[in-house]
Amino acid sequence: MLSVQEVSKQYKNSRALNSVSLTFDKGKCFGIVGPNGAGKSTLMKIIANVIQEYDGEIISSDRTGNHSLRKSITGYVPQEICLEEKLPALVNLQFYGQLYGLKGRELHERAQEVLRDIGLTDYGKEKVSIFSGGMKRRLNIGCARMHNPHIVIMDEPTVGIDPQSRHHIFNPIDQLKKTRTYHHLYQPQYG
């Protein structure tokens, strides 16, 4: 369970969020929709612990507002691609895994598993700079999943990608919903 309680965020002269309250149950997938500038990305960054200065409270499954625990159980995929393009896909995945304490054989096996899940097994040793936009998006999502988070937050994960890449994004999510108690919070792209 994840609960957003009376969350507000002010940026200088602009209020991005005003007393937002939501509850997300285990094993569910949620989409947040609204016009540009409505605060959707800000809310996702607060839940993912990217933004730590806000009013209100986020309570995760540990029943506390513990920021470090929430960060360790959350995978965040920003709108912008966050990859090192001069390095191979496998190295990018391993880097993100190491940030969350994965090492050695566990790190290598998890990276191979994620490559398979996102449909990039044959591209693990290829530099990201040669990837299409959809492949980069899939790899970016894979990086957020390296540490097996309980909550996956994706901000417009399908923007500018082809149907094949869309399948490689949503099919693993469907599988995770069936096998684990994951939360998925995403901002769909329309238009």
From TrEMBL:
Q: Which domain of life is it from?
A: Bacteria
Q: What PROSITE patterns does the entry give?
A: ABC_TRANSPORTER_2
Q: Which residues form the signal peptide?
A: none
Question: Which SMART domains does UniProt cross-reference here?
Answer: AAA
Start and end residues of each ABC transporter domain: 2-191
Matching entries from InterPro entries are given as: AAA+_ATPase, ABC_transporter-like_ATP-bd, P-loop_NTPase
Name the record gives this protein: ABC transporter domain-containing protein
